[in-house]
Design goal:
The protein is mainly alpha-helical and 357 residues long. The chain has a domain of 112 residues. Helix content is 78%, strand content 0%. It is built from 13 helices and no strands. The longest helix is centred in the C-terminal third of the chain and has 34 residues. The chain is globular and about 50 Å long.
């Protein structure tokens, strides 16, 4: 059997994810042996290393151009160096290089197919590149989090926009969401100069975007189906719910660089929205990227629902300033992601057994 070359990147992606989860527990207060990069490497590991490399790999696979693989390889290597040594290593240069090539990849793709959803994802790649430059030149993580989250949101929203072609959406409705996404991007850039005002406006626009997708995404139709379509639709709608929650937190409290409110905003967005999207897209993306079959199982609901319940508990702990709730529900957040990995591996094994019968 021919081995997909992308499978060789999987161990590095796995190391980044495990390192990100480990440092998450450190940040929560669990007593664990510390990685050299320290607990402060948690955000960069999960966003820039793990998620950045994974999205860039997906783009490279789609284009089948060797130079585009520089992006995921450089970001993964940069993240691992930051984990194994410190945040002041050559990993910085590799991360900037990777995000630059990722931006170039999206420019190339948009020139080939100059359509709306590619343009939106190109904007996301551009602010991700800018955010990484700011980060390596001294900006603290809370001050570049809008750039990092903007990359993930614009990428996901761009991909979901592509699927709106399967449902009737009026030209006016498409113009509305296009303007909202562009305004969202501009506000992220303006946050460099007018952070306090921009943060609240980002929250407002994020709510409007998430409401638009909740109303117009094909998930509203496919949730009535059975099997994988229902699972995917449920995860999408739950993801939009959490992005609305993160927007409300920003709108009400504004920019808070640390503490309970910051934790609630960041994890509603990155755990609630982003990981819900990862959970439901994995059965589609995983086989395409790594060439490994997956078989959908109702077990997938276990990690999806566990994430929602435990995240709700964690955010309640944030609002109550209750460290015990944050500590235990944060641990359960990690267990939900580990359960997702376990269910994914089991799904692959089952699919390979069926294929070989």
């Amino acid at each position: 059997m021919k081995i997909n070359k992308n499978i060789y990147l999987m161990p590095f992606v796995a190391v980044l994810l495990i390192g990100g989860l480990w440092t998450a527990l450190e940040r929560l207060g669990w007593s664990l042996p510390a990685w050299p990069g320290g607990a402060l490497s948690h955000g960069p590991l999960m966003i820039v290393g793990f998620l950045g490399a994974l999205i860039a790999l997906e783009r490279a696979v789609a284009l089948e151009k060797m130079w585009t693989y520089i992006a995921p390889i450089a970001m993964a290597a940069g993240g691992i160096l930051s984990l194994l040594f410190s945040l002041n290593t050559p990993g910085y240069s590799l991360i900037v290089l990777g995000s630059a090539v990722n931006f170039a990849t999206m420019i190339y793709l948009t020139k080939k197919q100059n359509i709306l959803f590619n343009q939106i994802m190109m904007l996301g790649a551009g602010i991700f590149f800018l955010g990484n430059i700011l980060w390596v030149t001294g900006y603290a993580v809370p001050y570049v989090i809008f750039f990092w989250s903007g990359y993930l949101l614009l990428t996901i929203f761009g991909e979901r926009l592509e699927l709106t072609r399967m449902v009737p959406v009026s030209k006016l409705n498409m113009k509305i969401v296009t303007y909202l996404l562009v305004i969202y991007t501009v506000l992220i850039i303006l946050s460099l100069q007018w952070l306090a005002v921009s943060a609240r406006l980002i929250g407002l626009v994020l709510i409007l975007i998430a409401v638009w997708f909740s109303m117009n995404d094909i998930a509203r139709r496919t949730i009535k189906m059975d099997g994988q379509p229902k699972y995917t639709s449920l995860g999408l709608l739950l993801g939009y719910f959490w992005s609305i929650i993160s927007g409300i937190i920003l709108l009400v409290w504004g920019f808070v660089p640390a503490g309970y409110i910051y934790d609630a905003f960041a994890h509603a967005l990155f755990l609630g929205f982003v990981f819900s999207m990862i959970f439901v897209h994995a059965p589609i993306i995983f086989p395409a990227v790594f060439g490994t079959p997956m078989k959908f199982s109702n077990l997938f609901y276990s990690h999806l629902l566990l994430l929602q319940i435990t995240l709700a508990g964690r955010i309640i702990g944030d609002f109550l300033a209750n460290e015990e709730l944050r500590l235990w529900f944060g641990l359960l957040n990690v267990i939900a992601i580990l359960l997702f990995i376990g269910n994914t591996v089991l799904s692959v094994v089952r699919a390979m057994k069926e294929r070989n019968q």
